[in-house]
Amino acid sequence: MARHIAWKTLFMIQLIVAIGLKEVKGQTTQNINILFVNEVDNSMANVAIEVALNYVKKNLQLGLSVDMVYVEGNRTDSKDLLLALCSKYSQALNDNSPPHLILDTTLTGVSSETVKSFSLALGIPTVSASYGQEGDLRQWRDLTPTKRGYLLQVMPPADMIPQVIRSIVIFMNITNAAILYDNTFVMDHKYKALLQNIPTRHVITSIADERDRASQIEKLRNLDINNFFVLGSLTSIKQVLESARNEYFERNFAWHVITQEQKDLSCNVENATIMFLRPMSDSISKDRLGSIRTTYNLKQEPQITGFFYFDLTLRALLAIKNILQSGSWPSNMKYITCEDYDGTNTPNHTIDLKTAFIEVTEPTTFGPFEIPKGKIPFNGNSYMKFLMDINAVTIRSGASVNTHNLGTWEASLNAPINVANEVDLKNLTADVVYRVYTVVQAPFIMRDSTAPKGFKGYCIDLLNKIAEIVEFDYEIREVEDGKFGNMNENGEWNGIVRKLIDKQADIGLGSMSVMAERETVIDFTVPYYDLVGISIMMQLPSTPSSLFKFLTVLETNVWLCILAAYFFTSFLMWLFDRYSPYSYQNNREKYKNDDEKREFNIKECLWFCMTSLTPQGGGEAPKNLSGRLVAATWWLFGFIIIASYTANLAAFLTVSRLDTPVESLDDLSKQYKILYAPLNGSSAMTYFQRMADIEAKFYEIWKEMSLNDSLTAVERSKLAVWDYPVSDKYTKMWQAMLEAGLPNSLDEAVQRIRNSTSASGFAFLGDATDIRYQVLTNCDMQMVGEEFSRKPYAISVQQGSPLKDQFNNAILMLLNRRELEKLKEQWWKNDEVQNKCEKPEDQSDGISIQNIGGVFIVIFVGIGMACITLLFEFWYYKYHNNSKVIDIVGPADQQQRTSVVKHIRPVMGKLIKQDSLKKSPNAQTLRTRSMVPSMSKFQSRF
Predict the structure, then answer these.
(1) Rounded Cα distance, 230 and 340, in Å
(2) How far apart are CA 32 and CA 315, in angstroms?
(3) Residues 6+ apart with CB under 8 A from 702
(4) 537 vs 783: CA distance, rounded Å
(5) What is the distance between the alpha carbons of residues 303 and 693, in angstroms, rounded to a whole number?
(6) Which of 293, 44, 280 shows the shortest CA–CA distance to 183?
(7) Residues in contact with 90: Cβ distance below 8 Å, sequence separation at least 6, in sequence order
(8) Which has more confidence, 938 or 764?
(9) Which of 202, 325, 480, 557 is the most exposed place for a label (fewest CB within 10 A)?
(10) Given this model, what pLDDT does residue 315 score?
């Protein structure tokens, strides 16, 4: 039963096929004449159209018979192409077989323009596969509605594939790009339109030959480009990748290779991850594609281009056939030759080729055609739809080790990327790593091996905060010559400015002044540090300190004279008291009841004169008038000496603190003892050099004016002055600087200051911020005078760089947040380094211990001498005053002596008692104790 059903089904199929063949044989075949125009290098179009004609010939059910006339031209010779077109066209008219259609596969250039001018002028229906969007086809820009019906253009895949670059740039927010292409792509019309209205700095250029390919990539890198797009065949892509240096495949670079071929990517690269894009055929048309490839041998690469020409030709032929069979083709079709055309007699045809082209139902081979509807123009918006496969290809040691799918892109003019994994795609983005060049100068930039970038400082913190806002990374290097940038006599720049001009640096960082001549070749951001002037740094005068500085107030001969006066006055007092009849020692009976009585021997005279110079006073004065006159004279002498000493001591210490040789730039310019110079190549050097040049120019101008023979006597007399009216201050200063020698680094300048002496000092002129930091971190430096020639600091970038606007916004945001003020506090006020120095404001105005400490030494010496004297007294008393005197007496004498003592003791006791009533208990005790030796001595005698 099953076998019977199978045979029945087979019979029915054969019957249906037989009926179909019968209908085809009965169908009328439509003959179509085609004028096929192609370029010399577009061999793929020749092959594809030949296959299409063969396909039509073998598929009788299409009902087509095609007669084709072939014309070939090139992009540079329009005259020969036009002659060939006119000749073939005239011959066809003479043979009564005018072309129904011009099939134009010219790409771009004069060949495409020639064909379009020809078809427009003669009114011949045309289907073109030329490159270009709306507006790029200059000859077909302003078509009438009628002409838009039969002059059609469909963009080839090679014209659509570059649009994926626009989608990638938008999706990945790429700010710079280099687009390289080979001869399989035409990018002439893409220079402006591809990335239009996108803030991406880009270069579109063809791939250089083998000799210049490496230098081409190097030049593009020097243009601050780190995103490379390569469009071409796999062979061209391989050559470009192998020409790039290994460092160009690091994380701060991104490579996107795009091809029309469907094979795998391979190249001899050491280590790289590359985004690889290639077209994929429509899944619905895969069976048809495989059948045509095998049956009609359409296997050339790139397949997408071959099948595009195949489908376009087949669709155009079927559209003409439908017009002819429907009777829409004009019966009285008018044709004119090239000779008949006068510029105004173009035939007015009403052929609606556009509608017929849209209504063709023949299936496509690689992908469907996207044809706009409504009011959207056909030309510049029609293309074949296809998918681009996006993969991440990892290459290690020249071999592809991994291919990871990232997503797809559907061909369109503005279609976004369909991403499978957004994170994986972002990983292929070139990290924005800017090249920063700087000059080490504390506290803006300082080397620090422990820091992430190897540097620290105010500018590093500033750049890090900007990077948080703008989102970028950077690598920082120190410029080789250590200069910010100056222009020599030949107009050539050095330092950071040279790096920015040569595109070797993206950012110039440091304490870089904004100068007019620099702004002509580079750009500056808004200032991050306002109005920094030039100041003077000198060695802090060190006040010489001495423990016995109080002795230096008076000269040595003065001290010797005072000492001589002391001994001489003491001797006179002793002499006058010795021989004056009115002195105490010569009138003891007269002054026996006087409580103030004092015998002025040599010891007492020396003591009196010494104590008279102290607040304690000299004590009891002499009784005689002559002695009192000597004492009064000594008192007056001592008062004058003490007053003079006190005043001079205070003034002496104050003057030593205020000893500052230079207080301003004018003081510096008027003296010759102290050498001075700015840093070589600095803005301060430029300032003094230019001021000197200006003075010289002014002098020449004044001299020419004064000696001008064309002036009248009256005019010349007005210019005749004895003195030159303009000062030559800066000319002399610049000459002095050159003679002193300009230091090449700030460290060298600091060392020269330290090595200078009072006889030949050195002053450094530089930016106030640098000097202020040096003063904070070096206790032996001081900042002198006011700032002058004030200029702001800013970050420098390449001229025309988009970083300028980005950094401007970031710096303004930091200013609004007061972040820059916090950085200044950190590096100029709260820096740990400055805590090692004693601040001038913390110093007391009093006399320091270093200058008055000798007084304490005098006390200690006096106490030491007193201790020694005490020991001497004990020794003298023990071994001299207590020596025993032995009297040889008899018993009678001994008895008599004992009797005398018994009578004397009561008398001595009464005397002591009476004396104790007048004196204090302590004095009584002392007197009693002092009497003991006398009593012992007295007893020993009796």
Answers:
(1) 48
(2) 13
(3) 719, 724, 725, 726
(4) 5
(5) 72
(6) 44
(7) 337, 338, 339
(8) 764
(9) 557
(10) 92
- Distance (Å, whole) CA 919 – CA 910: 14
Count the neighbouring beta carbons within 10 Å of the beta carbon of residue 740: 15
Mention every residue, 6+ apart, whose C-beta is less than 8 A from residue 34.
66, 67, 68, 69, 99, 100, 101, 102, 103, 317
Written as six digits, the tokens of 496 are: 């950071």
Give mean pLDDT, residues 494-498: 91
Query: In which residue are the tokens 């790139």 written?
Result: 302
Beta strands at 387-396 and 271-280: parallel, antiparallel or unpaired = antiparallel
Within 471-512, residue ranges assigned H as helices are: 495-501
Can you spell out the DSSP letters for 146-189? Answer: TGGGTEEE-B-HHHHTTHHHHHHHHHHT--EEEEEE-TTS--TT
Q: pTM score, two decimals? A: 0.58
* pLDDT, position 14: 41
Q: Are 750 and 540 in contact (CB under 8 A)?
A: no
CA-based nearest residue to 89, from 102, 75, 76, 78: 102
Q: Which residue has the tokens 């050491």?
A: 270
Please state the rounded mean pLDDT for residues 811-828.
87
Residue 39's H or E segment, with its range, is strand 30-39
pLDDT tens profile 352-378: 899 999 999 888 888 899 888 878 889
The answer to whether 393 touches 276, Cβ cutoff 8 Å, is: yes
pLDDT tens figures, 830-866:
656 665 655 554 454 555 555 555 545 655 665 677 5
| CB distance 27 to 325 below 8 Å | no
Provide, rounded to the nearest whole percent, the portion of the chain with pLDDT above 70.
Answer: 82
Could you tell me the two tokens for 905?
């003791």
Any idea which residue has 């950071």 for tokens?
496
Question: Bridge-partner residues for 512, per DSSP?
Answer: none
CA-to-CA distance for 846 and 141, rounded, in angstroms?
94
- Picking from 219, 214, 263, the residue whose alpha carbon sits closest to that of residue 239 is 214
Name the residue with tokens 């840093």.
679
- Cross-strand partners of 435: 475
Residue 674 near residue 668 (C-beta atoms within 8 A): yes
What does the pLDDT average to over 482-501?
A: 87
Question: Whose structure tokens read 């009965």?
Answer: 26
**What are the structure tokens assigned to 631, written together?**
């004492």
**927 contacts: CB under 8 Å, gap ≥ 6:** 912, 915, 916, 919
383-384 vs 254-258, strand pairing mode:
unpaired
Q: Give the Cα-Cα-Cα angle 536, 537, 541 (nearest 5 degrees).
A: 125
- Chain mean pLDDT for the chain: 80
How do 473-478 and 433-438 pair as beta strands?
parallel
CA distance 804 to 591: 105
What tokens does 193 get? 């339109």
